[in-house]
Amino acid sequence: MPLRLPPLATLRIFEAAARLKSFKSAAAELGLTPSAVSHGIDTLEKWLETRLFERSGRAIDLTPIGRQYLPYVAEGLSMIGVGTERITSGPDRRRVAVSVAPTFAAEWLLPRLGRFTSRYPDISVSIDTSHRQALFPLDGVDLAIRMGKGPWPGTTSHLLLREVLYPVGAPEYVASLRQPDGSLDWSRAMLLHVSSVEHDWPTWLAGACMAVTEPSGHLYFDTVHLAGGAAAQGIGLAIGRFPLVSAMLASGRLVQAVECAVDIETGYWLAAPAGEETRREIRAFQRWVLAEAGVEVN
Which of 91, 134, 145, 238 could form a Cys-Cys staple with 192, CB 3.0–4.6 A? Predict the structure, then answer.
């Protein structure tokens, strides 16, 4: 059964007038006359057989039904707009919007991003590191690098890297804990915890291949970045999370305190809206990220 839809033009007028709370402002935004906006609202109200606005002179306000209707219209128009952008591409549309977890962006993506821009100088990349999970297609995001167990419904997802946990610390700090037999004196260690992640010291301790005595103390941080920075400054031992800790290990700011590593189920995934991608720049970024992570896709 076909959907029963009012004229699209009247929905655009309604959304603009409701958002701007003014027929005159909506007219200016849409390139119409105020009378055309008023006529469009009248047409929509007659089609719906209900009033959407209360009018008092030049002032307007949404009726309860208008307030109920607005989110549906705004979301529908937004999806049409985003979908239109996703299938159109031209000289001024060479941009890829990517949602990435902040620490992954800083520690893994950004050090490599220069290789992409050198290879594709005509493609601009927009990085969004807000903590919330981007929604396709409403947030205007083309791709997302998500941390979790994946894959997610409604997406095409490729696993980039699994997480591996192991204790890390500054070289001098780890050396200060080392005993003559090469083992660590855990009783003198300060453990640095991250309160915002699911897997941290408890996960590593549960899967550790060694006995660990009670440490001298505990410090808690709300981000992986802060805990890693504190470890690099010699404050204590943190749980290093491969691949996030790889750059700090390579630079020598951190060292792996013990060889015992614990594999976990979570990882980093490259996710895109389900369906065949048509824009060249998005396909290029997908191929590049997968290649950087060593993932082969047929």
Answer: 238
At 238, list the tokens: 């943190």
Angle CA(240)–CA(244)–CA(248) in degrees, nearest 5?
Answer: 75
Residues 146 and 164 in one domain: yes
- Distance, in Å, from the CA atom of 117 to the CA atom of 124, rounded to the nearest integer, reads 8
Q: Is 159 found in the same domain as 36?
A: no
Question: CA–CA separation, 160 vs 285, rounded Å?
Answer: 14
- In whole angstroms, give the CA distance from residue 61 to residue 67: 9
151 lies in the same domain as 41: no
Q: Hunting for tokens 């655009």 — which residue is that? A: 12
Give the DSSP letter of residue 145. E
Q: Among residues 296, 273, 294, 297, which one has the least CA distance to residue 87?
A: 273
Please check whether residues 131 and 31 belong to one and the same domain. Answer: no
Find the helix packing angle between 64-87 and 8-20, rounded to 10°.
Answer: 110
Reply yes or no on whether the pLDDT at 23 is more than 60: yes
Other CB atoms within 10 Å distance of the CB of residue 288:
17
Let me know the angle formed at the C-alpha of 35 by 31 and 39, rounded to the nearest 5 degrees: 100
Cβ neighbourhood burial of 38 (10 Å; 0-12, 13-18, 19+) = buried
Instruction: Provide the residue type at 217 as one letter.
Output: G
Q: From 77, 7, 10, 74, select the one nearest 41 (Cα to Cα).
A: 10
- What total number of domains does the chain contain? 2
The residue out of 27, 54, 87 marking a domain boundary is 87
Instruction: Give the DSSP per-residue string, 216-280.
Output: SEEEEESSHHHHHHHHHTTS-EEEEEETTTHHHHHHTS-EESSS--EEEEEEEEEEEESS----H
pLDDT tens digits, one per residue of 67-90: 999 999 988 888 787 677 666 655
Q: How far apart are CA 143 and CA 129, in angstroms?
A: 12
